Amino acid sequence: MGEIHIKGKDTSYFYEVIVVGAGISGLLTALALSKEGKRVLILEKTENLGGVCRSYDIDGYQVDTGPHIITRLEHGPLKELMSKYFDVIPNFVPHGRYYVRLNSRIKPFPWNLQGWFNFDLIPQIDRIYLMKTLFGISYIFNSGEDLSRKSVGDLVGSNISESTKRFLNCMSYFMTGTSMNETPVARFLDSEHYKTTSAGFLDKLYNILMKEGAVDQAYPKGGIQSLITAIISSFPRDRVDIRTGEKVLSINSGDKIRVETTKEEYECETLIYSGFASDIPGLIDNLPKEHVQSLSKLHKTSALTIWLGLNRKIFTRDGSEIWADSNPYTWAVPISNYDNSLAPNGRQLVGFMSRLENDNNFEKEKEKALNAIFSIIPEIENHIEMTHHQVLIPEKAAWTIDTKFADIRTPVKGIYLVGTDTERRSMGITRASYSVIKLLSVLREDKVL
After folding, report:
1. In 10 A of CB 300, how many CB atoms?
2. Which of 199, 226, 359, 410 is the most buried (most CB within 10 A)?
3. Angle between helices 124-142 and 201-210 (to 10 degrees)
4. Would residue 406 be called left, alpha or beta, if left means φ above 0 and alpha means ψ between -120 and 50 degrees?
5. Residues 67, 304 contacting (CB under 8 angstroms)
């Protein structure tokens, strides 16, 4: 428990910093700020820590909240945070390759020029056309056009086959949560941005065409929970107080920021909100109208994960598979290949994630997703001994051509945002880590740190 001050007759508890939300963004923020010398309170409305980054047991299988592969681990933002703030570092296992299933065949994902020329799952004429299109981006870039406002669909046009459209749509859904007609071209130029923010366009294009991708992607041994455990184990003693089962009802600003929850009232100098930025107007009164309107434009995309426990090993490769042939598009991750302790002896645990098209008809969507799995690998149906479903929002903001991401700073002094709706780079834990690093920079500019 952190030190608590009582404010006169008012029984509000006082902290230097309150972090609302104990997902990965909130926990990383609390760790960094506590290591920077701040006394921090974490408020979490559920009874669990980690949000969509936690693990739990189902019939002897340890499932994660959705499949997770951590990207940019060697040079990216999570590595930076771990190096600076973690006392305990998880053991990471290399992810291996990404494979694409298309037109009833499977091949490694074409990360570079050579791989692309050999990627015969789509017609050669389409590959040549797409390469010409990629080189043509240099003209668009030099013209000053905003590539975050131009969609992949607009760029490639209609002169491609249906199978190539399926491939591009599938990749767009998994990279941004939306179709290629809403996915910005800029998302596909992000691959090496983390290595040098000063890289020019031709440098980025060279990286896309010539370098092998996904070489620094990994899975944390022990499941995604091992990352959450490492964060919590690294909290400095007596500097972080965690309260679960406390939903924030209101946030009021003044000389101090007052937070009312379902159980208590608290005061702080600085508040970091790591929940959905679009929920802030419901907690803070009198926000500027333009700020509320901006937050309302944040798009959310729901995902369905089906976990299957299999009584034999069906997925034999190291790596995961992207199924452009299935309806819905599916990402298959055999996590027990990375850590066999996640499944009973001789069994296999595989997560299948797809976009949830209709939240209001879950049973139909679940049946559709299962049928898609069985249509791709029919033998799976005869080897299932555990089935578990999850509905999650893996990114708090899908990156579309009309998405305006939330700012770290809010119009209210002392209140900041963090999380994947404040940062567009990468995805998942890596994207959350970028947002935390950006937050820390802003807090230093504002003399909070």
Report:
1. 14
2. 410
3. 160
4. beta
5. no
d(CA 419, CA 241): 20
| Distance from chain centroid for Cα 82 | 17
**Chain-centre distance of CA 53, in angstroms?**
9
Q: In 10 A of CB 117, how many CB atoms?
A: 13
Whole-number Å distance between alpha carbons of 213 and 190: 12
Tokens representing 313? 């090993």
The pair of three-digit structure tokens given for residue 29, joined into one six-digit string: 């923020």
Instruction: Answer whether 0.85 is exceeded by the pTM.
Output: yes
Both structure tokens of 270: 């600085």
- The C-alpha atoms of residue 79 and residue 406 are separated, in whole angstroms, by 24
CA distance 335 to 96: 12
In one letter, which amino acid is 268? C
Task: Using CB atoms within 10 Å of the CB of residue 429, give its burial: 0 to 12 exposed, 13 to 18 middle, 19+ buried.
Answer: buried
Q: Are 307 and 61 in contact (CB under 8 A)?
A: yes
- To the nearest 5 percent, what fractions of the chain are helix, strand and coil? 35, 25, 45
Structure tokens at 320: 């995961």
- C-alpha–C-alpha distance, residues 111 and 114, integer Å: 8
Task: Return the closest-CA partner of residue 240 out of 39, 82, 43.
Answer: 39
Positive or negative, the CA dihedral 324, 326, 331, 333 is negative
Helix axes 24-35, 225-233, angle to 10 degrees: 20
> Which residue shows structure tokens 């923020």?
29
Look up residue 85 and give its two tokens: 């703030």
> Of 68, 79, 66, whose CA–CA distance to 28 is shortest?
79
How many other C-beta atoms are found inside a 10 Å radius of the C-beta of residue 227?
Answer: 28
* Residue positions counted in the chain: 449
Q: How far apart are CA 189 and CA 22, in angstroms?
A: 31
Give the mean pLDDT per block of 10 residues along the chain (449 residues).
36 87 98 97 97 97 96 93 97 95 93 81 91 70 74 89 94 89 83 48 54 79 97 96 97 92 96 96 93 89 96 94 96 97 97 88 91 96 97 89 91 96 93 98 97
